[in-house]
Amino acid sequence: MTNLEYYKLMYIRKNVSLARYSTMRLGGEAKYLTNIKDKSDIPHVLDWANERKLPVIMIGGGSNLIWSDKGFDGLVIVNKIIGYKVEKEDHEHSYVTIGSGEDWDKAVAKTVANKLHGIEALSLIPGTTGATPVQNVGAYGQEIADTLISVEAYDSHSKKFVVIPADQCGFGYRTSRFKTTDKGRFYITALCFRLYHKNPEPPFYPSLQTYIDTMNIKKFTPRIIREIVIAVRSSKLPDPKTVANNGSFFANPIISNTKFNALHKKYPHIPHWKLKDGKIKLSAAWLLEHAGFKNFHDVKTGMATWHKQPLVLVNEKAESTSDLLHFRNRIIKEVHTKFGVELEQEPELVEASQY
Ligand SMILES: Cc1cc2nc3c(=O)[nH]c(=O)nc-3n(C[C@H](O)[C@H](O)[C@H](O)COP(=O)(O)OP(=O)(O)OC[C@H]3O[C@@H](n4cnc5c(N)ncnc54)[C@H](O)[C@@H]3O)c2cc1C
């Protein structure tokens, strides 16, 4: 077989380096890889993979995943399904459907240009629209679950396209059924949001509010909040186009009240947030910084922590995913030794056996 197969008008490439399909720019090869522009291609390409008993993963921009050095011994579907449509409007809301392969930030920009409020604080998050429900993407006080009405997807169990209402997506803090109980089952093709015609109102998320107070901003529209978010994010986070990274590498740990009380005694200034269920959320960035990983450059692995935000692990000169994992393990171990807190990795380390 050549390096290219042609199946029902789709090109399927063979032995493709996956490094450019992850913003961490590491990992082996995909046995097969194809781009999908039309949702009707999904059942065909899945049939093709099933006949060959291959695992299948659908990806967007690769900004929340890491490929192993072994690569992916199956079929990688790169989602390019576009579309943006205002379905209906009433005096309070607009219902907007967005194709899952649309660049997320461009989609947010469109809603903002239409003076719609609800996802403007999620500006500049890299990746595709279809990936946002997977980890219930969130930033600066907004998350997908707040405005999402439903997810359209191809269900590989029923072999049908389905519409899943948001309250059946199993959303939680940086999680959903798409990355837990139903991992790999659904191929997300579109999202429907209910956005507001009204303007956003204070109080805003603390780091936005600080910027607002410093700049003495008095008027708030979705466009103004988007501009503030872009300014705040750009001052702290590296652009994955120029610096290889996956954004926050660890989620903020959630611990019991008892465990927190013991930590608080030792570290009275430890930042924390009380959750509705009585548990306590800690700042993973603070834990890393106080475990000695502020602006930390590891010559051995070629990995580093970003100088403005230790939670962002940066691939400076790493040669393999194994280098990254060594660096990750060292951070997890040292944070655990110092604080007794287990860090949980946010980007997915893709294992073909899970698909
Ligand atoms: C600099 C930087 C900043 C970031 N900031 C934030 C932030 O503020 N908040 C936040 O929550 N995240 C953040 N992220 C993480 C990331 O951008 C988001 O998780 C984003 O939604 C991932 O989109 P993607 O298209 O790149 O997904 P990918 O990395 O390609 O995929 C991620 C997961 O979703 C699955 N998936 C993707 N598309 C589909 C689909 N159509 N159907 C089914 N499954 C699918 C994949 O199989 C994989 O499991 C940041 C990342 C970077 C690099």
Description:
The protein is of the alpha+beta class. Helices cover 25% and strands 31% of the residues. It has three domains: 4-79, Uridine Diphospho-n-acetylenolpyruvylglucosamine Reductase, domain 2, CATH 3.30.43.10; 84-236, 2-Layer Sandwich (Uridine Diphospho-n-acetylenolpyruvylglucosamine Reductase, domain 3); 245-350, Uridine Diphospho-n-acetylenolpyruvylglucosamine Reductase, domain 1 (Alpha-Beta Complex). It has a five-stranded mixed β-sheet with strand order 1-2-3-6-4, covered by helices on one side. The protein has a five-stranded antiparallel β-sheet with strand order 7-8-13-11-12. The protein has a four-stranded antiparallel β-sheet with strand order 14-21-20-19. A hairpin with a 2-residue loop joins strand 1 (4-7) and strand 2. Helix 7 packs across helix 8. The longest helix has 19 residues, at 321-339. It binds flavin-adenine dinucleotide (FAD). Residues 23, 57-65, 79, 100, 125-128, 130-132, 134-135, 137-139, 178, 186-188, 237, 240, 245-247, 348 line the site of flavin-adenine dinucleotide. Flavin-adenine dinucleotide is lined by residues 23, 57-65, 79, 100, 125-128, 130-132, 134-135, 137-139, 178, 186-188, 237, 240, 245-247, 348.
